[in-house]
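Follow-up to my post from last week.
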Amino acid sequence: MTPTYHEPTPAEIKTAKLYLPWGLTTQEYDLITTKLKRLPNYTETGLFAAMWSEHCSYKKSKPVLRRFWSQNERVLQGPGEGAGILDIGDNQAVVFKAESHNHPSAVEPYEGAATGVGGILRDIFSMGAQPIALLDSLRFGEINDAHTKYLINEIVAGIAGYGNAIGIPTVGGDTAFDDTYAGNPLVNVMAVGLLDQAAMKVGQAKGADNAIIYVGAKTGRDGIHGATFASAAFSDEAHVDRSAVQVGDPFTEKLVMDATIEIATKYPELVIGIQDMGAAGLVSSSAEMAAKAKMGVNLNLDLVPQRETNMTPYELMLSESQERMLLVIKKGAEQKIIAVFARYGLDAVVIGRVTADERYRLTFQAKTVADLDVQFLTHAPNYQLPSVKPTRLIQANPHQYQPVITDFKTTLLSLLAQPTIASKASLYQHFDSMVRTNTVVGPGSDAAVLRIRDTKKALAMTTDVNGRYLYLDPFNGAQMAVAEAARNIIAAGAEPIGITDCLNFGNPDKPEVYYELTQAGAGITAFAKAINTPVISGNVSLYNEYNDEAIYPTPMIGMVGLHTDVAHITTQSFKNAGDLIYLVGQTTDAFNGSEIQKLETGQITGALFGFDAQQEVTNQQGVLAAIRGGVVNSAHDLAEGGLAVALAEATFGTALGFTVNFNGTDAQLFSETQGRFIISVDPANQATFESYFSADLTQIGTVTATRQLVFNTKLSTTEIDQKTAYQTWKDALKWRLK
Amino acid sequence: MKAAVISFPGSNCDYDMYYALKNWQITPTIVPASVTDLTAYDVIFLPGGFSYGDYLRTGAIAQFSPIMQALQTANAAGKLIIGICNGFQILTEAGLLPGTLQTNQNPGFICTTTALHIVNSTSAFSSAYQKTDINLPIAHGEGNYYIDDEQLSQLKANNQIIFTYNDNPNGSVANIAGVTNVAGNVFGMMPHPERAVETILNNTDGQAFFTSIINFLNQKTEAVKA
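User reply:
Got it. Predicted complex:
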């Protein structure tokens, strides 16, 4: 097994420990040599390095992921495939997943974000589903330097550039700003697809002699794992430059998407498996498909479509060129499938066959260049990492911060201008949110809503997490992330049905970071179970650090909800003067980790306020029942900035105001106690509405035709001009980005 | 009545147009850009999207598609040809409509709903409107309509300007949002009427656009019969 081109020999790899820069440890390398009973060659070492990376193997996060609750009556496909799938009735299913592109976006923001969109869409249509929507969960530093503005503008442009061109609407998401993300922005993209259950596909290579077909863009040297380290030894300068950045091509991806969906729906019996070539490209897709089916593969690398000359087996297997898919097609049907792709002008080439022997065999220029046990290749040794509770959590001051409100109006306007609270329209206006003409509620409301054509059903979707809460309490902070996502779905009138996540954390080899990861995972599962929303897919992004400082633990929760009837679709805006305003939930002093603490002190400190899971569930169920009962005119979740901010937001975009009598302190109008909503109700429906709640419901005021925001508390009365509040909220981010 | 919706590789509003037309009891067919004969259709729509990726210049590659000859033939026969967004860009590139579409004055794609004024309310594309100002969605990065002064006076003199923006979102000359050719059978606009035909999507101001076209075609058919 000695290749003819110039590569280090197996002995040189061992002696010079060339595997170390690729991320393999000496222990892992020794395990490989022991198991193989020989030294792996250059290509094989590269295959192991890629397949045993955290990104592909989840070797460090697996103990956390395994504990996620991911099964209920709706789940057709849980974690482990391209995306998770839930039954939504009528032989239809919803498919969704989220993925992070944090590191590429920090280095090359436009292409990093763009290829993030492309990658998550491939995960959706590899299941045979038509993608219907995209959402983005973005985290940036506070906007006080040119670099942060550059990152924001380029990342938004990259998302727009890819999503708009491929024609999948970007309908929602969430964006927040904190110094913790200044050196390490987060770009998490969630995609949702709709599937006819008959066309459902998984990434499995079943059936010996079935064909392995490569489709889509040709393979180049872009994104090769470890290329920068290896190139100096055996390659020329030009390769290094091209390896650095993957470039997205939404036009090609649209063709690949349309053709893939066409074969999955037209020839379900001939298409055995589909998998996206994502991270670690050809090796990851082919090895995983074989391993899941307990089969093997023979691939002839000379047949791989290439756009550069003299590519080596190592480069071909590890390239992360975009817009490529791998298909397993029933033997004899190859030409039928190839013909479909040819009609779209796309390469589709049989590059190998499924084998029964569970071996991973690669040939190149008539020589075998890899021959490995598939199961061994795809099962990295798992790690149980040490976990230690961080000192800041042990020593946290249990007392809640007490805001000092000397000028209520100024405080409210300052909060409305905080980038995390202010309107994000100047960002999302760059995204086509309406293409495909299914978007009933677009960006800017609690959750986005898309109708399902030719049915009464609709889907609600949102992304949420407040990293500050997790920084103060990773378990309860994670429960709150799930709870807030569910409140957003319910405020839109839908029943939450499932979760995807992106676990964005620091270096897990630090026991404190690993503690945060395990606690957050446990918190997600705890509340996901409470509301029957299984975690059906997701991804893990570790090592999010800058100057050795980890980001706040930020497990992004992507949630999907089902409207059984489009008549239940509800938005956050007040509708009519004279409607009664209700507050659902109790308000306590919940200030540690809040926007007002950050505004007044510039810091996030103390022990996080509590989370009453039972109360949260009761309140959510009451609101959903009332909406389904047809007696709710608007519903809005309370989150950052508390009641005062939520009330103001409910008037934005309308010519209405309100008068509210709040039986609490001025400061409590900014408290962030969980489990709360504001609801507006026609006075004619008052009694019916109140019948959905047994407690924790307070009528706090009325919607008015005068554009004044009137707050009466135990301590003061304040009137704020609604237009001033609206303009402040609407323009704050736009001005900061100038 | 039969409508062709031309699907170029990269078109992404083809099905939106298809569904919008279906709501109007027209028989729409998605026709790939490789087709060379459009004689079977009464009206031809070029939908929005990013034809051939539009990496070079919007509509620049699409104008060389096989279907363009069939469009020229349809135009010579006086058929209605309607380009929305990318379709408008393609029609100007192909010389079927005057002017050209440039990058938005403030660069960047914009998706929002914008107010339009109906300048010519007697055209085949606007006659059914009962009001003078409407709201339609826009979604484009290159919708900045340019035409020189001399051609602009001709547009005005011939009543070729059908819609203008009330609050110009892209820098278009004379706030132009939608224009016809001199004969009045070819029309292009950046806003998306096909996104505004259903109550559930919160906007029905596109309905009268399609009603206008259908009324025009019906009158034409009756005139032929008479």
